[in-house]
Amino acid sequence: MAAVIVGLWLALFAPAVPAAQSDVDHGPWDYLMRRYVTPRGVDYEGLRADQAAVEQYLAALSAVEVDALPSAEAKLAFWINAYNANVVKGVLDHSPIASVKEVKGFFDRLRYRVAGRELTLNEIEGEGRALGDWRVHFAVVCASSSCPPLRAEAYVADRLDAQLADQTRQFLGDPQRGIRVEGTMLWLSRIFDWYQTDFLPATERGRSRRLTAEQLLPLIAPYLDLRVAHTIKSRRLSIRFLKYGWSLNEQH
Q: Whole-prediction pTM value?
């Protein structure tokens, strides 16, 4: 029934996709996220029943002219939603799987049509990273248990800053996936290891120096519990990275 409802909604209200668009309606993705994402994970079975709606949303994204979008926020929201929606497509296309690691080239070989180009997931993520907001790392979701949680709504330009701030607080506040302090060790998500340059001060980028707790704290402090921020500030900590779990972020 849900598939029928969303299919009718799209048929009635979604405009025909032209050769190129300078705007995009994220409403269909918002509907899907609100219906199939919960604190317990992603309902891929439900999304599979609504895969036609996923595909129609992706068809709209394929024709968007990103350079013509009205703001940096609109562009970043576009790339975040494009990444997350194509990750979902990748999972649905290859299901049943227990992990995206079962799919060869899931991130760097499989290609999806986005904004008139054939892009891998890594390339879609790169477009978002290029816009310079490091919080994007807590909004794009690689369908795995150690990823940030998939947000139960679409990202939209007029609320993007608040959405990214909330995502960042949630993820960094999770001691199993985000950040925790143990003695003299600052344990961080492996995301901080893979994308160290995105978290370094601008003056340090391009050098061989690795990320330190002292460099990181000013960046992330506004998103941390005050006690955790004080602990990091008051101790001399060495950084270690948490083990990354790749099991599918499916609903349990």
A: 0.90
